[in-house]
């Protein structure tokens, strides 16, 4: 996230410098012609886009710092963090889980807990490492199988 802030911040600074020091018009693809004032407005709009990315990355860093999300696995349930803006924790009882599956799409892996009402995703990308992801899946599968054996 810090690298993203630095990269897009530098890009915004470069575009802002061009917008501030603009002294001529702009012709885009021989189709759109801008006056000096129109060219400055065009560059200021382009400057705002990477600044928006910088702002979002900064908010994400603050959010992760003050409200860290952790996956909690207990003997009877798993607590899954949900949401990006509004953070919530959903507790899924292992007795409610009908089935589990794992999907991979374009290199992104997810473990799914199927309940009668909803599917819950545990994304590999949100875990600190592949080992942590594999360990969490193994713990959940073991808890579900133990729960199912005890209930039969």
Explain what this protein looks like in three dimensions.
By secondary structure, this protein is of the alpha+beta class. The protein has 2 domains: 2-66, no CATH class; 72-151, PH-domain like (Roll). Helix content is 47%, strand content 26%. The strands form 3 sheets. The protein has a 3-stranded antiparallel beta sheet with strand order 3-4-5.
Which terms summarize this structure?
single chain; 152 residues; alpha+beta; PH-domain like; 2 domains; three-stranded antiparallel beta sheet; elongated
Number of strands: 8
Q: Assess the beta-strand content as a share of residues.
A: 25-35%
One letter per element, helices H and strands E, the order comes to HEEHEEEEEEH
Shape: elongated
Radius of gyration: 24 Å
CATH uppermost class of the largest domain = Mainly Beta
What's the mean pLDDT score? Answer: 83
Domain count, please report it.
2
Q: Uncertain regions: pLDDT < 50 for 5+ in a row?
A: none
The CATH topology of the largest domain is PH-domain like
Measured as a percent range, the helix fraction is 40-55%
Number of DSSP helical runs: 3
The end-to-end distance, rounded to whole angstroms, is 48 Å
């Amino acid at each position: 996230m810090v690298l993203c802030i630095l990269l897009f911040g530098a890009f915004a600074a470069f575009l802002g410098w061009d917008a501030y020091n603009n002294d001529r018009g702009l012709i885009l693809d021989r189709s759109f012609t801008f006056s000096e004032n129109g060219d400055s407005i065009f560059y200021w709009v382009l400057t705002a886009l990477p600044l928006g990315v910088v702002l979002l990355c900064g908010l994400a860093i603050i959010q992760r710092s003050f409200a860290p999300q952790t996956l909690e696995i207990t003997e009877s349930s798993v607590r899954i963090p949900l949401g990006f803006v509004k953070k919530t924790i959903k507790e899924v009882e292992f007795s409610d889980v009908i089935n589990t599956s794992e999907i991979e799409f374009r290199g992104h892996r997810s473990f799914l807990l199927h309940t009668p009402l909803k599917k819950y995703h545990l994304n590999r990308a949100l875990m600190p490492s592949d080992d942590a992801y594999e360990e969490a899946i193994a713990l959940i599968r073991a808890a579900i199988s133990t729960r199912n054996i005890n209930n039969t």
